[in-house]
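Subgroup meeting minutes
Present: P.N., E.W., G.H.
Scribe: E.W.

1. P.N. recapped why we're keeping a running log of single-chain structure predictions: easier to compare across weeks, and new members can see raw inputs and outputs side by side.
2. G.H. added today's entry (694 aa).
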Amino acid sequence: MRHRTRSLSRRDILRGAVATVPTLAAASLFGPEAWASEGSWSLPPKNAVKVIENTWIPMKDGTRLACRLWLPEGAENAPVPVVLEYLPYRLRDRLRERDEATAQNLAPYGVAFARVDIRGSGNSEGILVDEYDTPELQDGVEVIAWLAKQPWSNGSVGMRGISWGGINSLQTAAQAPPALKAIMPMGFVNNRFDDDAHYVGGCLEYENYRWGCGFKAVMAAPPDPAIVGPAWESLWQQRLDATPAILETWTSHQRFDAYWQRNTIALDYSRIQCPVYAVSGWLDPYSKAVGTLLANLKVPRKGLIGPWGHLFPNLPTPLALAWAQEEVRWWHHWLKGVDTGIMDEPIYRAYIPYRTQSEDPELPGRWVAERTWPPASTQPQTLHLNAGGQLSATAAPRQTVRYVANKVVGIAKSHWMPAKIGEQSADDQESLVFDSAPLDTDLEILGAPVARIRVGADVPVSHLAVRLNEVLPTGESWLVTYGILNLAHRHSLEHPAALKPGQIYDIEVTLYPTAHRFKKGSRIRAAISESLWPLVWPSPRIATLELELGPSHLIFPVRPIPAEEAAFTIPVIHAPPPQQNGLNQTGPDAHGRITLGAERPARSSPPIPETGTVLTNGGSEYYEIVQGRANSSLWRQQNIVGFRRGEWDCTVTSGFELTSTAEEFHLKEYLRARKGETQIFEREKISKIPRNLI
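Output recorded in log:
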C-alpha cells in the first residue's frame, strides 16, 4: 500500500510538551521507538487486520451511512475498542490512502478504526447543506451507539480527526453520547465565527470563499455506483438540487450571531465531559484552539503543538512523529482501561523552533513540556511603541502618529493557511514599524503575544493589523505571528459598534499563539497597518488611523531558557521551504493595480489500485485591487473535480466572484455538473448583501 506523505487539508479540498520532561528522549519522538521513557508502556505486538470495504450504518430515519472498517484479527472473539473518524471527504477515493495510513497506526495494535462518510457525502445517503449541521451531529451520536453495540466492539468508542473531523469530534462529544469515552481533535477550532475559515477578528476572510467554493463541490459530488448501485444517478441529482448558495449564507452572517453560535464549543466548555487530547501545528492557524481548550476544559486533557501545518503529526513533510505510539497509548488508556502512564506526563508539549519555517527548512529547535496551562514558566515582557520607530522596554512621552491606509499591505502574508510564512520587508515598507535594539541574548516566547494600542480612525469601520517579525542582522524581516481586528468588534464579536471619528480607543489585539526563539543580534519588529490584503476584505472606506505612541505596547509571553534544556535538531527530509501557494503577482501598474493569481489546469491521477477510480482536480484563483481605492478589490475562484471509472464519468465545477461598494457586497456563485461530455446541471446565484460594519 502506498501512503501519501501529507494529509488532505481544507486547502487541498478547495484547490481540486515549565520544564522539559527529563526522561523524554528527543530521538524517540521521530523514530520507531516509544515516546515514553525506557521501561514504560510500549506498543503491543502487531496483529493482522481485517478490512471491510463497506458496511451500512442505518439511521433512525432510514438513511444509510457508508462506513469502512478495519478490525483487529480476532475481535469477534475478544472485543476491542473502536475509534471513529467522521468526514464528508469521500472515504472510498479521495481520502482512501490517508484513511489507510490512520488505520495502520491503530488496528494492528488492538484498536478498530471506522471511517464514516457524513450524510449526503461520499457514498452515504441523504443530502449535506452546511458545516456541522444538526443532522450531522445527531447522526454522529447514532453512529457511536451502533459501533458500541457491534459484536467485535467492547463498547468503548473514541473519536479523532483533523479539521472537520477534529471540530465535529468536539461537537459530538458535547452531545454526550454514553459510549464516547475520549476524543483526539487535531487542527480544530472552538469558535465557528472567529477562529475558522470565515471571519478573523471580525474581518471577512478570503478563506471563507476559497473554502466555500471547494465545499460546494464536496456537497455536490456523486456517490460511487460500485457501492450505491443503479440509484447513484438519482442520489447525485438530489445532491445537486439541494446544494445551497452557501457563500451567500456565510456572507450574510457578518457577526457572531445565532447561526455561528450553533454548536460553537467556546460558549459552554462544560458540555465536554470526556477526556481530550488536542493536537495541532504552529503553521496551522487552528493551533490557536489548543491552549484555549486546555485552559477552559475541566476533564482530563492533554495538548501538543509541533512545527508543521494543517496535517496529522505522522504525515507532515519534511518531518513526522512516530505517532502510532502516542495515539495508541491514549486509546488503550481511555478505551481499554490500561494504565499506560500517558496521564502522568505534562499537560502540554510544544516544539520551539529556532528559525522560521521559511528562513530555514531544517528548522532546528527542541521540544518542551509544561505541567500546567497557562504555563507557570512564562513571564510577561512589555515593549512600548515609541516615537522614532522604537520598540522599547520603557514608555517614551506620548506622541501621536497618523497612518493613511491607502497602501496595499499583506501580499507577503497573503494566505490564512499556513499561519506564518514569508519575508516581510515589502509589507513593512508600507506599514508603521517599531524595532527593538539588537538582542544581547537569545529570547524565547511561548503563547499568544498581545498588542494594546491606543488608536482612533476617521471612519466608522476600520481594521488594525499587527505583525510580529524577527529582523535578522542581514536586514531580512521574517514573520513570527500576527493578529488583526475589525475595530467595530473591539468590544464584542456579537454586537459590533461603529467607531466615532476623532475618538481614541484602547484596543487589544491578541496575536496568534506561537513558539519562537529570537536570536541574539536580531531585532524584534512590530509592524502596524490598517489591513492585510488579500487575507481579509478591505474596509468600506480609506481610513486614516491615529495612534498614540508611548502608552501603546506589546506583551510577550517570554519563556526563560534553562541551561539544562539541551537543544537538538529535528531529523528532516530536505525539502524547500513553504511557498505562497503558487500565486503569480503583477503590478502595481501605472494605475496602482495589483493582481495575484494562479491557473491550475485539470489533471487526472493514476487509477486508485483497489478501485480503478481516476480523480481529476483543477481550477484557478484570482485577486485584484487598486491602491488607494477601497472598493476596487475583487476575488474570484473556480474549482474542478472529477470522478471516472469506465462509464461512470462525472465532473463538478464550482466558482464565485466577489466585489463590493461601501454599502454592500456583490457576490456571484455557481455550480455546474457534467456526466461525460453532457452538462446535466447548472445554477448561478447573484446576490447583493448589505455590509454590517464589515
